[in-house]
Amino acid sequence: MRKRTVKDIDVRDKCVLLRVDFNVPLKDGEVTDDARIRGALPTIHYLIEHGAKVIACSHLGRPKGIDESLRLRSVAERLSELISKPIKTADDCIGPEVEAAAASLKPGEVLLLENLRFHSEEEANDPAFAQALASLANVYVNDAFGAAHRAHASTAGVADYLPAVAGLLMEKELNFLGGALAEPERPFAAVIGGAKISDKIDFLSNILTKVDKLMIGGGMANTFLKAEGQEIGHSLVEDEQLDTARSIISQARERGVQLLLPADVIAAEKAAADARFITTAVNAVPEHSAIVDIGPMTMSVFARSVDSCRTVLWNGPMGIFEMPPFAIGSYAVARSIASLDNATTILGGGETGAVAAALGLEGHYSHVSTGGGASLEFLEGKELPGVAALMDVPG
Ligand code: ADP
Ligand code: MG
Question: What does the alpha-carbon distance between residue 38 and residue 355 come to, in Å, rounded to a whole number?
Answer without folding.
Answer: 19
